[in-house]
Amino acid sequence: MSGRFSMSQVKESLKSKRVRAGLVAAFVAFAIIGMRMHAASALRNSTEEQSVLTVNVIKAENSKAKEEVVLPGTVQAWHEAPIYARTNGYLKSWTKGMGSPVKEGDLLAEIETPEVDSQLKQAEADLATAKANNKLAQSTAKRWQGLLKTDSVSKQEADEKMGDAQAKEALVNSAQANMDRLKDLQSFKQVTAPFDGVITSRTTDIGALITSGSTTGQILFRIAQTEKLRIYVQVPQMYANLITPDLEADLYFPDHPDKAYPVKLFHSADAIEPVARTLLTEYLLDNKDGDLLPGGYVEAHMKIKPAENTIRLPVNTLLFRAEGSQVATLDENGKALLKPVKIGRDFGTEVEISSGVALGDTLIINPPDSLVTGQTVHVAVEKPKDEKAKDDKKS
């Protein structure tokens, strides 16, 4: 009959519905299992990521900043000399005292030399005698040479007269040299300035006994030329290889604390002083105004360029362990690699690395004490400057 279903059709319909329901249930089951597996995998990955150490890094670069080294220095005049007497006697007078400006050749003092004067008179008489004897000997030798030609005298007698004439001439030369020496000593009775300058001390007075020479005699005057000053600075050996011909420095004097005097290197000793282990350096300073005085103390602020391939690292990149100082770097696989280093100079927040780190090495900042070689680390991505500024404003 139309409009009615047979029993077979009803059974088929029910069977079809059961199959579809089973398929739906299976699909839902598979979907739930897949979701749980994905969640478990995500949780596992998240846990692994969280267990990986996240670090900040820097690159080892050449230090280009000039270092300011402050060292004590000594101020000396461009020329400075003690004035000694060159002859013996008594001080007759002096014309220049302490603080007096002088020119080269100016008379400073006059010495009375009675002994030298007497010796000079005797030397003049000895010279006159030698010249008279020489004149007679020369004429005699000449006369005997004429007689020898006529065989009136023997050759032996003529040679004796010639030898006597030569000896008398030598005595004249000796007497002349002695008189010239005494004249020079007599000329030293006038003490003059060797160069332009200022008398910085006078240590004698009228009537004082004067003895010649620097070993037995005393200093009469001291003179200094102060239009230019020499500044001497002893540089420690650790900085010696950084001293270059173009080295600059600023000088600060205690009596002029608010003023810096810029200078450049003039000379260096090019040798280490064996006792103090320092390198002597010299600077020139113009002092035409006479504001600065020689003999004082100065503080030299030297602007030293670092040597090529010099590496400075922040102190927070160092690990201090029983094996010694180390740094943590990243290898080509992004894993931690600990390297021993040798520390040079300490600048407080930074240290100079003498060995162990190469230019371009990636170093971990604030490495934990538990960090070991081969450990996997994650490098934190640095935010752009504009994003950092926004975060700072928000905070």
- Average residue-wise pLDDT: 84
Helical/strand content category: alpha+beta
User: Which fold name corresponds to the CATH topology of the largest domain?
Assistant: Elongation Factor Tu (Ef-tu), domain 3
Query: Architecture of the largest domain, according to CATH?
Result: Beta Barrel
Strand content: 35-45%
Global morphology:
elongated
Number of beta strands: 21
What is the fourth-level CATH superfamily of the largest domain? Efflux pump adaptor protein, beta barrel domain
End-to-end Cα distance: 84 Å
Largest sheet: 6 strands, antiparallel, barrel
Tally of helical segments: 5
Which range best describes the helical content: under 10%, 10-25%, 25-40%, 40-55%, 55-70% or over 70%? 25-40%
| Structural domain tally | 3
Write the H/E string, N to C: HEEEEEHHEEEEHEEEEEEEEEEEEH
Rg: 50 Å
Q: Which runs of at least 5 residues are low in confidence (pLDDT < 50)?
A: none
The CATH class name of the largest domain reads Mainly Beta
How are the strands ordered across the major sheet? 2-9-12-11-10-13
Q: What would you note in describing this structure?
A:
There is one protein chain. The chain has 395 residues and is of the alpha+beta class. The protein folds into three domains: 65-110 and 192-306, Efflux pump adaptor protein, beta barrel domain (Elongation Factor Tu (Ef-tu), domain 3); 114-188, Helix Hairpins (Orthogonal Bundle), CATH 1.10.287.470; 309-394, conserved putative lor/sdh protein from methanococcus maripaludis s2 fold (Beta Barrel), CATH 2.40.420.20. The chain has helices at 7-51, 114-149, 155-187, 237-240, 385-394, and strands spanning 53-59, 67-83, 89-94, 101-102, 107-112, 190-192, 197-202, 209-210, 221-236, 248-253, 256-273, 278-286, 297-304, 311-314, 318-321, 324-330, 336-340, 342-346, 350-355, 362-365, 377-379. Strand 10 and strand 11 (256-273) form a beta hairpin. Helix 2 packs antiparallel against helix 3. The longest helix has 45 residues, at 7-51. The radius of gyration is 50 Å and the shape is elongated.
